[in-house]
Amino acid sequence: MKVAKRLKLVGKERVEGIPVKHFNEKQDLLLRHGRLFPTWACSLHEGFSVFLYGFGSKKVVLSAFMTYLMEVDTEAAVVEVIGYSPHFTLKELLIQVSQAAGLTGEEEALNISGSKRSVAALAKRVVSELRKSDRSVFLFVHNIEGQNIRGEDCQEVLARLAELPNVHLVASADNASVTPLLWDQKLAGLLNFHYFHVPTYCSYEDELMYQDDIAFEENDGRRLQAASVVLSSLTQTARAVFRELGESQIAGGSSEDGEAGSGSAGLGGRG
Known about the structure:
It contains eleven helices and five strands; from the N terminus they run H-H-H-E-H-E-H-H-H-E-H-E-H-E-H-H. It has helices spanning 3-6, 23-34, 37-45, 59-72, 90-100, 106-110, 116-132, 152-163, 185-191, 211-232, 236-270; strands at 49-53, 77-82, 137-142, 167-173, 193-197. Helix 5 (90-100) packs parallel to helix 7 (116-132) and helix 8 crosses helix 9 (185-191). Mean pLDDT is 81; it is low at 10-16 and 260-271.
C-alpha cells in the first residue's frame, strides 16, 4: 500500500499565493506518521479507540488512514464525521452510521424527525442493531471537541458506539489536555482511547472555512444567554415592566417608520 502518495501535502495549502514554510519538513513528518498506520490499526483490532492529537490540521492524516483501513478491510463500513462543522447534528451522525451499516435506507432517513425523543430512539435502535451485526464500522471523527459535537448527548452516543466490538473509533483533537474534560470516568472507559501524538503543523484551511459561521452563532448565543441570565435575576414585577418597555419600543419604532414614510411622501408631493 502506497501510503506516501496519500500523505503528500496539498499544493493548495497556501495563503494568498504565499508558499508553505518548511514544506519538506512537514512532508517528512506526515510520512513518519504514515509509518505508524499498522500500529494504529493494531490498537483498533485490540479493542482500543485511537485518539490523534497535536498542533496542526490532522485532516490529511485521518483521510489517509481511512483509505488504508478501507484497503485492509474492503467489507467494512466507513463513516466520516466533520466535528468542526457548526452545522453538524447528532441526528446526522446516527443517520450516517445507520446508512453506512445498511440499517436505514435513504427514504426512511428522510422521515426521521430532529426531535430529542426521535433522535434518542434512533440512537437506541442503531446501537442495538449494530450489536447484533457482524459488519465492521470505522468511525472517523475530525475534531471530537468541535462546537456541536462536544455536548453530552453526542459524546455519550460516540461512547456507546465505541464500546461495540465491531465499531472502531478514530478521533482527532488539537488539545489533549482539555478534551478529556468532556468525559466522566464512565464515558472515558467506554471510549477507551489509545493516545498518539501526531503534530502536523499543517494549516487549518478546511477547519477555518466555517469560522465566520461559528463566530456568528457563538455571538448570537452569548447575547441570548446573557439576556436570559439578566431577566431570570429580576423580580416578576420588574420583568413585566421590561416586557411593557420592549413592546412599547417595538410599537413606537413601527409608528415612527410609518410617520417617516408619510412625511417623505408628503414632501415629495409638495416638491
